[in-house]
């Protein structure tokens, strides 16, 4: 019985935040606005329960904060709690966290600070605002300034509404929620300011706005820990402080004999570590932050560096690594920052199997780098139209070429009919192998490529500021795919590809003409830029509003189907006097075989 009660109380809390107010009035009468963070929630635990008991029982194993009777958890964690219902406990209610304009995460608790105007008493204020019935207690917080603290019995998601009602009564000078705040140290992710690919403010002589639009996407999600990205590369530093919290067990498909067990690298083989940081470096107080910082990484080593600077691998090792990623490890996304050579049937077979059978038949999203030779798209990126082939841009929004603004004269991003999208690919800050191995300080990529924009790498050898190539562009897109699946894991591989391609930004129209082209069905396209620069925010928004397919259903009780996009009806019967309500922000499309028996009803809103 307790489990059932817990289920409905918690569900009520989740649904109540859908109409959550995101502002209140300050003492000057100005509206103070916040972003609603749909990736994090604040949950109040019943007073007869201990927060410590909940955490110890692993119901909130990923909780980032506990404070008195409150727990902050990622939204995917909370959904897991709802689904599993493993423990007997009662949660009071919940609300989405809010983000202030400076990036601070906040949430109203069940208390409100109120200052009465001169001559007014608190009882009159509560009656005027019509909130007396939900105010559990009133205490004097500062007697000299007539400031009271109200404790309310309403849902947390309604606390802002109560504060607004109190202020609008005209009897108080201010009514402000008491917030729980997650304050970050001043050095939080110190290299994030350099990550122009996530937020371009003109770093390195670039152009403001030529970025993947990450920050607005993060107001919706920073990823879901159930989404797994395989970094198929030369290994990942398994103890890196910005990576280890997001690492899953890895795999070594090579026979290098250099200690690369579980997907770790050998020696200076830092390429995979750099790619992993771009995808999912943790959002903490150090280093950089990944595109999908709450998603997981599967390190898969298929190669190691040879003395001449390239990779050593075999077709068998590549195929083995691909197979492990999609079949054994259950990866959702395969990020491949490599390519070249002639096609191989064994590799093509694993790619096609991953596309067809991965993710329980939905298909893995496969992302490949286009190549760095200022020429045509390399294999395997050019081998399958369902691969997302990624080129690189400069901080100025151009296709990376020997003459682009970044000053790296020795390479250019490959392009041509197989190119799908572009992403940041030069002077990319990311994770490096710790200590004296890796790019920093051994391989100064920017100067070696002719670059003169920067003359030194980071002093912290666990990071590098000048990772480059379509190798850097590819994991940006893999990270965006991870965000897309985080908000809608039911999407197929093809749907994810369509979302990413159709929402890409048509950057630099002064240099490139985007037009309709045969073989490119997801919008206007250009041979040097593909569909354009990947747009994380637009892609996540589109993924949230994919059509709802209501198919093969017999409706015998009152049922409501909602969608922020279209609803597609196929093979549906409404019977037994039931009412089917269809609420669509887009269109309701009846494909075929839709029957409503006598006495039953359909309503379209």
Task: Fill in the keyword field for this structure.
single chain; Rossmann fold; 29 strands; disordered N terminus; alpha/beta; 8-stranded antiparallel β-sheet; 14 helices
What this model shows, in words?
The protein has 605 residues and is of the alpha/beta class. The chain has 3 domains: 2-182, no CATH class; 207-543, Rossmann fold, CATH 3.40.50.200; 548-604, no CATH class. The protein is built from 14 helices and 29 strands. The strands form 8 sheets. Strands 3, 4, 5, 6, 7, 8, 9 and 10 form an 8-stranded antiparallel beta sheet that branches. It has a 7-stranded parallel beta sheet with strand order 12-13-11-16-17-18-19, with helices on both faces. A 3-stranded parallel beta sheet has the order 24-26-28, with no helix packed on it. The radius of gyration is 27 Å and the shape is globular.
Return the structural class: alpha/beta
CATH fold-type name of the largest domain? Rossmann fold
Shape: globular
Strand content: 25-35%
Give the CATH class of the largest domain: Alpha Beta
CATH superfamily annotation of the largest domain? Peptidase S8/S53 domain
Helix content: 10-25%
Question: What is the level-2 CATH architecture name of the largest domain?
Answer: 3-Layer(aba) Sandwich
- The tally of helices reads 14
Mean pLDDT: 87
CA(first)-CA(last) distance = 36 Å
The count of β-strands is 29
Oligomer: single chain
How many separate structural domains?
Answer: 3
* Largest pleated sheet: 8 strands, antiparallel
Rg over C-alpha atoms, rounded to the nearest angstrom: 27 Å
């Amino acid at each position: 019985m307790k489990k059932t009660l817990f289920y409905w109380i918690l569900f009520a809390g989740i649904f109540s935040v859908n109409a959550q107010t995101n502002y209140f009035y300050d003492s000057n009468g100005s509206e103070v606005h916040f972003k609603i963070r749909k990736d994090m929630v604040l949950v109040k635990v019943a007073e007869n329960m201990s927060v410590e008991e909940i955490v110890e029982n692993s119901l909130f194993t990923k909780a980032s904060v506990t404070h008195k009777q409150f727990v902050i958890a990622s939204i995917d964690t909370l959904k897991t709690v709802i689904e599993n219902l493993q423990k007997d406990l009662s949660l009071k209610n919940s609300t989405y966290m809010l983000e202030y304009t400076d990036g601070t995460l906040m949430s109203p608790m069940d208390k409100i600070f109120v200052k009465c105007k001169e001559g007014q008493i608190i009882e009159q204020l509560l009656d005027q605002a019509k909130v007396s019935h939900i105010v559990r207690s009133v205490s004097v917080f500062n007697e000299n300034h007539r400031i009271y603290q109200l404790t309310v019995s309403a849902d947390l998601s309604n606390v802002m509404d109560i504060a607004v009602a109190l202020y609008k009564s005209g009897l108080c000078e201010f009514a402000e929620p008491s917030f729980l705040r997650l304050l970050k140290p001043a050095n939080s992710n110190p290299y994030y300011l350099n990550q122009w690919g996530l937020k371009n403010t003109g770093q390195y002589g670039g152009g403001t706005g030529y970025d993947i639009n990450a920050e607005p996407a993060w107001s919706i999600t920073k990823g879901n820990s159930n989404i797994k990205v395989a970094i198929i590369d030369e290994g990942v530093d398994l103890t890196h402080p910005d990576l280890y919290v997001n690492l899953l067990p890895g795999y070594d498909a090579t026979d290098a004999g250099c200690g690369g067990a579980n997907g770790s690298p050998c020696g200076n083989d830092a390429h995979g570590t750099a790619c992993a940081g771009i995808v999912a470096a943790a959002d903490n107080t150090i280093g950089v932050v990944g595109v999908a910082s709450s998603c997981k990484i599967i390190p898969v080593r298929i190669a190691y560096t040879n003395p001449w600077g390239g990779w050593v691998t075999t077709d068998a090792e590549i195929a083995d690594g691909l197979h492990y990623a999609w079949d054994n490890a259950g990866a959702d996304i395969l990020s491949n920052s490599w390519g070249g050579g002639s096609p191989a049937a064994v590799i093509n077979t694993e790619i096609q199997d991953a596309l067809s059978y991965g993710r329980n038949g939905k298909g893995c999203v496969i992302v490949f780098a286009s190549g760095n030779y200022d020429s045509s798209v390399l294999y395997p990126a050019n081998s399958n139209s369902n691969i997302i082939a990624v080129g690189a841009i400069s901080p100025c929004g151009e296709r990376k070429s020997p003459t682009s603004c970044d000053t790296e004269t020795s390479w250019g991003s490959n392009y041509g009919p197989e190119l799908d999208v572009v992403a940041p690919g030069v002077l990319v800050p990311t994770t490096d192998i710790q200590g004296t191995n890796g790019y920093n300080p051994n391989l100064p990529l920017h100067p070696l490529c002719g670059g003169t924009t920067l003359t030194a790498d980071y002093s912290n050898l666990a990071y590098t500021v000048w990772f480059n190539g379509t190798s850097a562009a590819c994991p940006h897109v893999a990270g965006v795919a991870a965000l897309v699946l985080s908000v809608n894991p039911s999407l197929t591989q093809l749907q994810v590809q369509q979302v990413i391609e159709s929402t890409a930004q048509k950057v630099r129209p002064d240099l490139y003409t985007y037009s309709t082209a045969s073989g490119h069905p997801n919008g206007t396209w250009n041979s040097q830029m593909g569909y354009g620069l990947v747009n994380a925010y637009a892609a996540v928004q589109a993924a949230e509003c994919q059509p709802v397919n209501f198919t093969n259903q017999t409706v015998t009780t009152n049922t409501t189907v909602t969608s922020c996009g279209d609803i597609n009806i196929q093979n549906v019967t409404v019977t037994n006097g039931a009412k089917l309500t269809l609420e669509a922000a887009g269109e309701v499309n009846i494909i075929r075989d839709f029957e409503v028996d006598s006495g039953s009803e359909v309503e379209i809103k």
